[in-house]
Specification:
The protein has about 180 residues and is an alpha+beta fold. It contains 3 helices and 11 strands; from the N terminus they run αββααβββββββββ. The protein has a domain of about 120 residues: Metal Binding Protein, Guanine Nucleotide Exchange Factor, Chain A. The strands form 3 sheets. The protein has a 6-stranded antiparallel beta sheet with strand order 5-6-10-9-8-7. The structure holds zinc ion. Zinc ion binds next to loops. The site of zinc ion has 8 residues, from loops.
C-alpha cells in the first residue's frame, strides 16, 4: 500500500510538472503574437489584449461594444467609414491594431466597408460562423479577438475575396505624404 501511495504521488507530481510545457513553450509565451505594423513597415512582436466585459464597456462606445464584443452587425449604409477614401489605415477600434489599407478598399455596393485583403494575414483571424442558419467565415482582430465582420469569396480580383467589415469595429487613421 505504501509503495502504491508513493507511486501515485510520483505520477501526480509528474502530471502537474508536465502541464506548463503544453502551453506556451515558445519564446514569449502563448500570449505573444507577430503582427505587421503599418507605421513601422515591418513585423513586430506584440501581446494579446485580454480584458473583462466590464473593462471593454469602459473603453468602448455602446455601438463598438455591441459589434466587437457581442458580434453585432451595424445596419447597412449607416457606417461612418463607408465613404472614406483617403489614404490611410483602418485600425481595430478595440486595440488599435492595423487591419486594412485604404488601397484595398472597394465599393461593394453592400453598404458595409469592403476590402480585398487585410494589411497582413497575421493581423486578422478567421473562424467558421454557422449562426443565422448560414455558413459564413467570421473575421476577428488577432490581438484582442474583437469581431470585425465576415469574409466572402465573391470579391473582385486579384484575391476574389470580400472582407465585409463594420465601421464601428474600426478607426481610420489618415496617412499624409506616405
Ligand atoms: Zn483588436
Amino acid at each position: 500500500m505504501r509503495h502504491f501511495l508513493i507511486l501515485l504521488f510520483v505520477l501526480l507530481v509528474g502530471m502537474f510538472a508536465c502541464r506548463p510545457s503544453t502551453g506556451g513553450s515558445e519564446k514569449g509565451g502563448a500570449l505573444s503574437l507577430k503582427i505587421y505594423s503599418a507605421e513601422l513597415g515591418r513585423y513586430i512582436m506584440s501581446q494579446k489584449v485580454i480584458k473583462t466585459e466590464q473593462e471593454w464597456k469602459r473603453i468602448l462606445t455602446k455601438e463598438q461594444f455591441h459589434i466587437l464584443r457581442e458580434k453585432g452587425t451595424e445596419r447597412a449604409f449607416t457606417g461612418k467609414l463607408l465613404k472614406v477614401h483617403e489614404h490611410g489605415v483602418f485600425r481595430c477600434a478595440g486595440c488599435g491594431l492595423d487591419l486594412f489599407n485604404s488601397e484595398d478598399k472597394f465599393e461593394s455596393g453592400t453598404g458595409w466597408p469592403s476590402f480585398t485583403k487585410p494589411i497582413a494575414p497575421e493581423n486578422i483571424t478567421t473562424r467558421p460562423d454557422n449562426s443565422l442558419f448560414s455558413k459564413r467565415t467570421e473575421v476577428l482582430c488577432s490581438r484582442c479577438e474583437g469581431h470585425l465582420g465576415h469574409v466572402f469569396d465573391d470579391g473582385p480580383k486579384p484575391t476574389g475575396l470580400r472582407y465585409c467589415m463594420n465601421s464601428e469595429a474600426m478607426l481610420f487613421v489618415e496617412l499624409k505624404g506616405q
